[in-house]
Design a protein that fits this description.
- The structure is a single chain.
- With 281 residues, this protein is of the alpha+beta class.
- It has eight helices and ten strands.
- The strands form two sheets. Strands 1-2-8-5-10-4-3 form a seven-stranded mixed β-sheet. The chain has a three-stranded antiparallel β-sheet with strand order 7-6-9, with no helix packed on it.
- Helix 1 links the parallel strand 1 and strand 2.
- The chain is globular.
- The structure holds 2-oxoglutaric acid and fe (ii) ion (FE2).
- Fe (ii) ion binds next to loops.
- The site of fe (ii) ion has 3 residues, from loops.
Length: 281
C-alpha cells in the first residue's frame, strides 16, 4: 500500500475513502505554487527569527514557527480551506465539535536526521483513545517541493489502524513526495515523522491541525491571537480557534457566558446547547 495522490478537484468522498484506506492522502495543488510563495514571503521574517529545536523530536536543525493566523493573513485561507474543514469534520465526527489544534511552519534544515516515527495523537499524553475514535486530523501544506532527499514526511501507509505505541524504522516508511501547493492530509493515528534532509536547501511545510474540541489545543490560540486581531477575523475562524463552547459546556466564561462575548459581543449566543454548526458544507 502507498499513500495515494488525488487531483485538486477530487470529491470529498474520494478523499475520505483514501484516508480511511491508507491513513493519508496527498491532494495535488489545491492552491498554486505562487500562493504558497506569497505565504512564504509573509512568514520569511518570522522563520528567520525562529530558533531551532532543542531536542531530537523538535529537530536541532528544524525551525517551528507558529502563530500563523497573526503572522500570515494568507495562511488563514488554508486553515479555512473548505475541503480540509469538511474532511476534518468527518474524521473527528465522533466528537460533538472540533477546533483548530495548531498552526506551524516546519522548516527542516540541511543535515537534519529523520524524526522518530510517531502518531500525532501521542501529544495527548499518550492517552490510549478507543480504536476508531479519532481526536486529531493533520494537514501539511508543501511550501517547498517535498522530495525524499530534502526531508519529505515519512509515513507507514495503512498504519492508522495498527496497535498503539509501535516502533518503526525508516525502512518501514515511504516518503510523501509532493509539489509546492499540494497538501498531505492524514489521521492522528497514522504513524509518520519528518524525513531526513540530505539536500542543501530547506524543506518547509505548513502543519495545520484540527482536534476534538474536548482536548486542550497544542497551540494556545487565545494568547497567540491578540484580541484586537481576533476582532478582525471572520466568524467561522473565530469559532474554529475556540471562541465557542466545545461539546456542551466546555470553555464557558463565568455566568455560562459564550466566550464570543469577549471578542465579538454581536455574535454571542445564549444557552449551552450550541452544537458545532460552523462548517455547514
Ligand atoms: O515536518 C514533517 O514532515 C512532519 C513533522 C511531524 O510529524 C511532527 O512534528 O509531528
Ligand atoms: Fe507528527
Amino acid at each position: 500500500m502507498s499513500i495515494p495522490h488525488l487531483k485538486a478537484d477530487a470529491s470529498r468522498e474520494e478523499v475520505l475513502a483514501a484516508i480511511e484506506t491508507a491513513g493519508g492522502v496527498v491532494v495535488d495543488r489545491p492552491v498554486s505554487p505562487d500562493f504558497m510563495d506569497e505565504i512564504a514571503a509573509e512568514l520569511r521574517p518570522w522563520i528567520e527569527k525562529t530558533p531551532t529545536g532543542t531536542d531530537e523530536f523538535e529537530g536541532r536543525r528544524t525551525r517551528r514557527t507558529g502563530g500563523l493566523i497573526v503572522r500570515s493573513s494568507k495562511s488563514r485561507e488554508l486553515i479555512m480551506h473548505p475541503l480540509m474543514l469538511a474532511i476534518s469534520k468527518q474524521i473527528l465526527s465522533r466528537a460533538t465539535s472540533m477546533q483548530l489544534n495548531a498552526t506551524q511552519a516546519i522548516t527542516i534544515g540541511p543535515g537534519e536526521p529523520a524524526q522518530v516515527i510517531h502518531r500525532d495523537q501521542w501529544a495527548f499524553d499518550m492517552y490510549p483513545f478507543a480504536k476508531g475514535y479519532q481526536v486529531i486530523f493533520n494537514t501539511i501544506w508543501a511550501m517547498s517541493d517535498f522530495t525524499e532527499r530534502n526531508g519529505a514526511t515519512r509515513v507507514v501507509p495503512g498504519s492508522h489502524t495498527f496497535e498503539d505505541k509501535l516502533r518503526f524504522t525508516e525502512a518501514d516508511t515511504e516518503p510523501v513526495e509532493m509539489t509546492k501547493g499540494s497538501v498531505f492530509m492524514y489521521s492522528g493515528t497514522t504513524y509518520h515523522g519528518g524525513g531526513a534532509n540530505r539536500s542543501d536547501t530547506n524543506r518547509t511545510g505548513l502543519a495545520l491541525s484540527y482536534s476534538a474540541s474536548w482536548l486542550r489545543q497544542e497551540e494556545n490560540q487565545y494568547l497567540a491571537v491578540p484580541v484586537e486581531i481576533a476582532r478582525t477575523l471572520p466568524e467561522e475562524l473565530l469559532r474554529l480557534i475556540g471562541y465557542q463552547r466545545g461539546a456542551y459546556a466546555l470553555g464557558y466564561v463565568d455566568d455560562l457566558r459564550d466566550p464570543m462575548e469577549f471578542v465579538r459581543p454581536d455574535l454571542a449566543r445564549r444557552g449551552m446547547a450550541v452544537k458545532s454548526e460552523f462548517i455547514e458544507n
